[in-house]
Amino acid sequence: MQIRTAPEEGFAKPLFSIVMVTFARDHLVPQTIAQAARVAGRDDVEFVLVDNNPDETDRSGFLKPFSRWQYVKLGFNKGVSARNDGANAARGDYILFVDDDAFLNPEGVLDRYEAAFAANPNVAIVTARHIDHDSGDTPRASFPHTDKSLPKDKPFKTFRFQGNGFALRRAAWEAVGPMSEDFFYGLEEIDYAYRIVDAGYEIYYEPGCWVVEHNDPAGRKPKKEVEEMRLTNKLIISFKYLPAIYLPLNFVLFSAYVFYLNRGNVNVFRSFGNFLKWAREHPGRRKPIGRPAISYIESCGGAVWK
């Protein structure tokens, strides 16, 4: 891993670090970075670009819109867990994660994140609204709550967050630790959300901050492979954190839901086999959330078994 940093002379410590992990999207990344610089609306911010591309290309030139930046070159595709490398390099009190095919909004967005943290001192994560570029709406899967009937344009305390456009309080990151390295892609934010609420923190949905997601096909695995990976990940996450009473219902219903959603075009048995393989290779990883976390989820209107 190599890290390059812009000259720091005359700059105070940044309050915000915007972290972006990129892979196979050179055609779009300069635009997403420029958009982040345009809407940041302040100068106490740095941009951290984590390069997952397995090549020798130096992409630090993409960072010109920011006067303060860091470029982290991994040299291989680490998947979503590369966010940890960005967070480790980040120097801000708040770490904002934005995908490389997403446009951060609106102007002055960092002020909105900061205000949400200030108004909610026990909040570890402020999660933005996800808006699909094509539909202009928030996809069901990207709404950070198990009750999909809640209004998408109103803020609320929650127990989930969307893995694109979420800001993390550094103090919580240091207390809870890095995100799981178990997952290459898919539902990794659910894993971290359980750890956040089990540590006594809260999560806040702030739709006044939003990202426009382009769902760029570059660098994505085939849909069937992605859905099977997500199902495996959900089984792992449920096994790690759910009390035993909820596990059978969760396993059966979520597997059936994924099978139905994909019109049978997924191999549920392969996903379950991959889960069993993970469980054999990672003994002692089951640590169900405690009663306070369960009470918090229920106070947010959540169903623990989901």
Please describe the structure with a list of short key phrases separated by commas or semicolons.
306 residues, alpha/beta, Spore Coat Polysaccharide Biosynthesis Protein SpsA, Chain A, 2 domains, ten-stranded mixed beta sheet, 9 helices, 10 strands, 34% helix, 20% strand
Overall description:
The chain is of the alpha/beta class and 306 residues long. The protein has 2 domains: 212 residues, Spore Coat Polysaccharide Biosynthesis Protein SpsA, Chain A (Alpha-Beta Complex); 77 residues. The chain has 9 helices and 10 strands. Strands 1, 2, 3, 4, 5, 6, 7, 8, 9 and 10 form a 10-stranded mixed sheet that branches. Helix 1 links the parallel strand 2 and strand 3. Helix 5 runs parallel beside helix 6.
Quick overview:
This protein is α/β, with parallel strands linked by helices.
Question: Mind sketching the topology for me?
Answer:
Blueprint (H helix, E strand, L loop, with lengths): L1 E4 L10 E7 L6 H12 L4 E7 L17 E5 L9 H7 L4 E4 L4 E4 L3 H11 L3 E10 L23 E3 L7 E4 H7 L11 H11 L3 E12 L9 H19 L5 H15 L6 H14 L9 H9 L7
**Text of the CATH class of the largest domain:** Alpha Beta
User: What percentage of the residues does DSSP assign to strands (E)?
Assistant: 15-25%
Look at the helices and sheets and give the structural class: alpha/beta
Based on CA atoms alone, the radius of gyration comes out at 19 Å
Overall spatial form? globular
